[in-house]
Design goal:
Elements lengths: L2 H27 L3 H13 L1 E2 L1 H8 L3 H13 L3 E6 L2 E9 L1 H18 L8 H32 L5
Antiparallel strand pairs: 1-3, 2-3
Helix pairs in contact: 3-4
Length: about 160
């Protein structure tokens, strides 16, 4: 097996273990995987409207409303009127969410930050480029597969 095949297999194994970790994190928080992804998006972006969340997660308006209801009931997010346009709602993760997220992911961030220290700046730049290009590849293919799913849905008459 050549080194490129080994790299591909290692990337796949890494994705699998991240998926397993996210599953365990969702169980710990008492949420489903979509809810976990919503919290992740909110923690990254600080605040969003429900429609922005729907776009980010590929969800319908009804699905977003049900998800926000669940997460608000659990104390993981708040909804408040947008000060600039009171017709809009702003969704934010709570401090409890940030704390629980750090409890789960913080040790990985802290321990993982030592990994690049063993590489030269040029090697880190290479790894960063590889990781970014891999993410962009998957983003393109997520869009492609979502289009395929849309094509399979029966059309309303």
């Amino acid at each position: 097996m050549d080194i490129r095949e080994q790299l591909g297999l290692e990337v796949q194994a890494s994705q699998s273990v991240v998926d397993a970790f996210d599953e365990a994190a969702a169980l710990y928080l008492g949420v489903n995987r979509t809810d976990l992804r919503c919290l992740e998006v909110l923690l990254q972006d600080q605040e969003m409207t429900p429609s922005q969340l729907g776009m980010a997660l590929g969800l319908t308006t009804g699905s977003v409303t049900a998800m926000l209801d669940r997460l608000e009931k659990l104390g993981y997010l708040t909804r408040s009127p947008d000060p600039g346009d009171r017709r809009k709602v702003i969704v934010r993760a709570t401090e409890e969410t940030a704390a629980k997220s750090w409890e789960l992911y913080g040790p990985i961030v802290q321990e993982g930050s030592s990994i690049p220290a063993s590489y030269t700046d040029e090697q880190v730049e290479l790894l960063l480029d590889f990781t970014r290009r891999s993410r962009e590849l998957y983003e393109r293919h997520v869009a492609r597969v979502r289009e395929m799913v849309g094509e399979k849905r029966p059309r309303k008459r």
